[in-house]
């Protein structure tokens, strides 16, 4: 499970950094922030001891909410 968390965290972090570097679409800044938060939520090293009372279920639900919010960010503002 930790290997999946590390893989997901690195993928989200590298995606966020690539978006910060390139900024190809209008919602890139928001999308980059979401990916950085997702990388933080997925990092097993940070969440080993359950700091701040946040459980694994709460982190998974928050990650799913962030993933499902992506279409709202990518919709055109007009």
From TrEMBL:
Keywords: Membrane, Transmembrane, Transmembrane helix. The chain crosses the membrane at residues 28-47, 59-77. It comes from the Bacteria. This is Uncharacterized protein. It comes from Sphingobium quisquiliarum P25. The lineage of its organism: Bacteria, Pseudomonadati, Pseudomonadota, Alphaproteobacteria, Sphingomonadales.
């Amino acid at each position: 499970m930790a290997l999946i968390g590390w893989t997901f965290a690195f993928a989200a972090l590298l995606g966020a950094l690539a978006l910060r570097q390139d900024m190809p679409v209008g919602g890139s800044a928001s999308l980059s922030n979401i990916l950085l938060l997702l990388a933080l939520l997925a990092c097993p090293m940070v969440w080993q001891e359950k700091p701040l009372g946040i459980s694994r279920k709460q982190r998974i639900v928050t990650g799913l909410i962030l993933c499902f919010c992506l279409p709202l960010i990518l919709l055109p503002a007009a």
